[in-house]
From TrEMBL:
It holds the Pfam family Dioxygenase_C. This is Protocatechuate 3,4-dioxygenase beta subunit. Keywords: Dioxygenase, Oxidoreductase, Signal. Residues 240-259 are annotated as: Disordered. It comes from the Bacteria.
Amino acid sequence: MPANPARPPSASRRRHLLAMGLGGAALATLSRTAPAAAQTPAAPLPLTAPTTEGPFYFDPGKVRQDITEGQPGVPLEVRFTVVDTAGRPLPGTRVDLWHCNAAGVYSGYAGQVDDHDRRVSTRGQTFLRGSQPAGADGVAVFQTIYPGWYVGRATHLHMKVIDGNRTMLTTQCFLPDALSEYLYTQLPAYRRRRVRQTLNSNDGIALRAGDTTLGAVREASGRYIATLTLVVDPAALPRSEAFPPGAPPGPPPDRGQMASLDGAARVAAIVPGTKL
């Protein structure tokens, strides 16, 4: 009867192989209990870059998915996935989201300036703010509107990742300029007297933060869906870029902008890979 090829070699058979100089390689081939090849550990994911909190954060104490509160604009679903550097989800972590409305104004603050240089107040209002716990897959989902813009900043969302009483990450999510340009020029809720001059390519905060804060947006039925993976180190001390002490509640100074962009120069600044 032929030998069972899955049966480990006998002691005499092992001595015979060793005597022939075949050694460990042959034994590994014949033995079911040979150790598996060593796995190369995957490289850790890069941490999401922190950014300034800005002057407009407060916690309204609203745990909710839909943060719209009737604000006009294009429906936007925001999906943040919170993971550690090994890609493991961090369920139960709290994600806070806040951003400006279609006119570039935040809720809850006086002293803001609208597109006609008028002072406006939204004290007591909580639109476009809320919190959600990350699910078992690490995902926190919000229903909101596509944000507008204000002088000195590219289009962005603000968010925090919080574990208990500890903030693990404060950062921003930057949205594609080409889509923003289309919405801002075609839809009445977003049209402005000024032409937007600060883009992802010349916003100082966006440039310092880099690729880990660039959101991906896709079209879905009746809405856009924006996604971003937030990679945090649960053991690290929280950090964020400092906002200038004593800064007024309004858009940051419009420093370092490109010269007025139009025509081919504007297309080159907005559409990645486009050259003059």
